[in-house]
Amino acid sequence: MLHFIDFEVFKYDWLCVIANPITKTETVIVNNPDKLRQYYQDHKSELFIGYNIRDYDSWIFKSILGGFNPFEMNEHIITKGLKGYQFSNTLREYQLIIFDLLQLNTSLKQLEAFQGHSIYESNVDFRLDRPLTQAEIDETIKYCRNDVQETMNLFLQKKADYDVQMELINEFKLPFSYIGKTQSQLVAEIMEAQRVDTKDEFNLNFPDYLNRIHKYKHIVDWFKKFKTDLEFTDEQKKFLYSQKLDIDVAGCPHTFAWGGLHGAKLKYSGTGYYLHIDVSQYYPSLTVKRNYFSRATSEEGKKRYDMMRLESIRLKKFPELKLKRAGYKLCNNKAYGCMKDKYNALYDPLMANNICVTGQLSLLLLIEMLEPIVELIQSNTDGLIVKLHSLDDYDLVDDICWEWEQLTGVTLAFDPIITRIYQKDVNNYLFVDEFGEVEAKGAYVKNLSPLDNDLPIVNKALREYMINNTPVETTINSCDELMEFQKIVKLSSKYECVEHNSSRYTNKCYRVFASNSPQDGMIYKCRDGKADKFANTPEKAFICQEDITAATVPERLNRQWYIELAHERLRQFGGN
């Protein structure tokens, strides 16, 4: 049974709305601990779902169950910035099975805005130093009910994440309550991790085959100078991890660092014959082939990891098993990050460093081997994009890649030949292959979803130009859907209010459009008497907080602003 829940907490009042989509019932509880306790007793073995429920709502829930004032818990979490579990040990006896839909650095109101929904916020001040009136309670219930409805809507869109975690729980016969764990915590359980105390973070391992690097040996030496079995303080580690090497490799500016390899021709566009040389399951393969497992992993955990690595490759041929494959890939890919998380049982930063450094230098070896016969366009964490001077060079490139595979023990894959590419940098590009398939990465050119629908018309204009050579003016001028032109901005806690057209607002989220009306001005975020411009917003703007899912473009919309922005972004990708 699913229960979607949201709490609102004031100094003298609290309330919650709980919706059950299975029974199609709704429960509203206002200042009534006994009613909440009874609901808990009736449903404590079932699943509660919320937005930020792990770090907020579940602790408000538990504080009320434990007889505490929820406002004290609210202050503990929000004002003091402490974790809910630090409030009182007595709360441990109240177990909740939860699933959190929180998306990093994104509020629920922003997600509502991206989808074109109404983003009006409650007028009831959460800082009120008095009990709420009945009218204020009614308005807060309405606001809370809307958040619960939006949370249910979000769950439908993100249900794949839930399904993947449930697939893993069922696969490895874990308790249902583990659905409440983060993905990283779940991976540690599957790997049967038993935390170990390691103090050799920089005692790096360098495979012998890296001795074949000659032209770029100085890059290998740069990493080798960090090798030591000494123990460092947190401040010293912070300094070491801040080090990076900016250097030219094969005609491309590159950065070698502790987070991975990045190199690309900037503001590049071109046509011809390009190869995307991708390393299959790179970090997982290095983990297995070089025994770079976290030392906290059990022998059974290692067997599980390798099984998932091999199966995720095999299951690629069976789309009907995509859920199982997604679960295996999640475990393989998350394990590396777990080794860098000091709060995770898999924590082992040396092994993470071994994977990252070996991965970078192994790709550097491949670049050196290929450089005489190709033009390097891009290097990233797990692959290269190169331009062939002629299709006749394909077989030679294939032979060199085979030789590299024998040296490293990992496998390369060639995607279909790319015929057209636009590249801003290593993290922002679009290319079209010989079959007309498109791959895009980066906020400016990716296909936007309903949950990141920001300036969608500009993305669409860039993609149409890059893929079909359609002028950006054609795309922008022919669109009549208002939602396609929205820019979503969020007021951070560093600012007090928003100012627009001489009026002040304290809402957190705003939907902004470019205006051609002389009466409209800029939208500002304000603090301490200073006003700052929101990034990527026009000089003249209007705000629309109501539902616009069916709205058409009004006359006051300034299409030219979007056209100029599209051209500006296109130039960053080497376009005209």
Give a structural overview.
- It is a single chain.
- Strands 6, 7, 8, 9, 10, 11, 12, 13, 14 and 15 form a ten-stranded antiparallel β-sheet that branches. Strands 3-2-1-4-5 form a five-stranded mixed β-sheet, sandwiched between helices.
- β6 (245-249) and β7 form a beta hairpin.
- The protein contains 17 helices and 22 strands.
- It is globular, with a radius of gyration of 27 Å.
- The chain starts with a strand and ends with a helix.
- By secondary structure, it is of the alpha+beta class.
- It has helices spanning 33-43, 53-65, 70-79, 108-114, 134-157, 159-171, 183-190, 217-224, 234-241, 282-289, 299-314, 322-338, 349-370, 394-408, 456-468, 472-477, 559-572, and strands at residues 2-9, 14-20, 25-30, 47-50, 97-100, 245-249, 252-257, 260-264, 268-279, 374-380, 383-388, 412-414, 418-425, 428-433, 438-441, 487-490, 497-500, 503-505, 509-514, 523-527, 530-533, 541-543.
